[in-house]
Task: structure prediction
Amino acid sequence: MTLLNDTHNPALKSWLASANSAGCDFPIQNLPFAVFRRKGSSEAFRGGVAIGDQIVDLAALAKSGLLTGEAAAAAQAGAQDKLNALMALGTPAWSALRLALSRALREESAAQAALQDGLVPQAEAEFDVPARIGDYTDFYTSVHHATNVGKLFRPDNPLLPNYKWLPIGYHGRASSIGISGQSFARPVSQIMPPGATEPVLAPSRRMDYELELGVFIGPGNALGEPIALDQAEQHVFGLCLFNDWSARDIQGWEYQPLGPFLSKNFASTVSPWVVTLEALAPYRQPWTRPQADPQPLPYLDSAALRSEGAIDIELEVFIQSAAMRAQGLGEHRLSRSNFKHAYWSVSQMVAHHTVNGCNLMPGDLLGSGTQSGPTLEEAGALIELSVGGSRALTLPSGETRTFLEDGDTVVFRAACEQPGAARIGFGEVRGTLLPARALN
Result:
């Protein structure tokens, strides 16, 4: 697990005033990574690091001569149009770059003059998917989500027998993963209407979001060589926000016997900023398993996991309908949850994914699955909040929702906050549902 060092000191301040403001997502203790360029420009995309409301341009930093050794090599790797090369370097390189940036951005740093003219305002930037995602696997790590959804279909036995023994996952579609701001058409596929004996080809009427965290893989593993649990996080570059949009009516018809397909592969959306595990170190918590539940098999259990395998990340979901925008109404919060409730940890996902010898690659993405808490108000999807569509939610505009309507924008935000530690934010991920394309 990541140890605390001087980059985590909550007393640290930056010479950039916006990084020191209350409620800032990106103080000097965070320093997350993204891929960006100036809006409307023909510039090449390149890596950047958030500080306050600005971006440190890694391409400019690499050319500046301010860094040396491992930090300089890491900046050069991060200056490319995707972060895969930086992700492949591993923890020592990421930590060296983080420490060098922290020192350069601190109050009274001699590097201020060299850095500040090269900063790019986040408001003037556009972003791209942070990595070239070769493969994407979505997990199902929230026992509360699994139970809530299971009750809708199997009231007497909501959890399948294997759920508490292994991290359930499926391989998703990497090509349709887009960056925050993604708009996409309501998907069309086969649906079996209630009471019908034959399916129809139609647009989904039960569109949903899924509140997830994305896990970007750093150094991979050779084919046939599993990653041990206590080494798993050395293979994780960082976490981002992730919305794995879902068409529940398409899913209900197609998922037997092989699982999600067209109900999931039409769009998934990631946030621009990837927060490193090192930045999250102050928010580690013990990972627990109820004594009455099956305890993990040895390859999924360790003293380090039990000591600090969970991470306290507050997660929020907001919605803004087209009518709300027209009326000048702001986003409406639908729910709040926390990643600390996850039944399976980040390290357990990686260890289980590779126990059969599966090889992960730098830039691969794991989805955490919908993150729901123990109460209905902490549900991470509309299928839970609306109890399968039986309970309508009322928006500030007077509209109601059981599932998403055309024009709805969904926004996720996340942050870590506790006394004695700096706030670590994730920014946001947003996406908008558009009308279905016309059927031929």
Summary: Residues 178 and 406 are 19 Å apart (CA to CA). The chain has two domains: 6-127, 136-434. The first strand starts at residue 33 and ends at 38.
